[in-house]
Amino acid sequence: MLHGIHVPLVTPFGPDGALDVPSLEGLAHHVLTEGAAGLVVLATTGEAALLTADERRTVIATCRKISEEYGAPLTVGVGTIGTEESVRQAIDRAVDADLLLAVVPYYLRPTDEGVLEHFAAIGAAAGVPLIVYNIPYRTGKTLRVETLLELLATEHVAGIKHCPGAIDADTLTLLAEGRGVLGGDDAFLYPMLQLGAAGGITASANVAPAAFAALADAVRDGDAARARDLHDALLPLVNALFAEPSPTVIKAVLAERGLIADATVRSPLRPPCSEVVIRALDALAGLIA
Ligand SMILES: O=C(O)C1=N[C@H](C(=O)O)C[C@H](O)C1
Asked: Which residues carry out catalysis (predicted)?
């Protein structure tokens, strides 16, 4: 289930700020038709923290229906700063998920042992495979590589979405010794896949699903030249999409291309500056040409 590109969908809103279900449906169909291996909802890119409980339920139900139609796995984001609430969310959302994605508890900076207990509790409660979302530059918690390997060996943990913002020594160890590592830093997807990552959860694939799917296929097929060409073509797009807080630029590009009706993001996110959006659109045009 972890192979290929899993697209963490944006959550479209109308100009009035309300959840736009038809745009969400259209985008989910689009990325799966274009070669995405799976859908991810309620992740960072989906502005999960800015949705109401009702909206989260609607997003899950909408994408569940579509993922079943395509026989593609649906990953649902869960997880908060605390174990009890994370377990509650996992139990609640597991019924409609093939995989759950739970972030390392942020801000509190618990010990590595506390983090291991946190994920063991979520995994045991949920009953569906769990992906640990390791993103130290957002959570404020850096885990030892030994802890990451222990997490991968934990019952119910299927993989780690690993986003250290670099290919560092620990990443090399993790890729060499662990199974189920997923690339989550879009700019590093190509080297992560080349070094043995199973797949990727890639926000930029909202706007270029076919190219990212082709990149994963090329690495899988051992076509190094094609993979490198695709990486070189995608990097300017990725850099533009992440030049402002994500998913503001992604939503603006999707709206410009008619893939969602409106680019609205929720506060404290703000619309991106037009120069960055133009840069992203130019990079995307270069990719499609
Ligand atoms: O939606 C996500 O979750 C993703 N998060 C990463 C981030 O938080 O920066 C980026 C990744 O492409 C998808």
From this structure: 133, 161
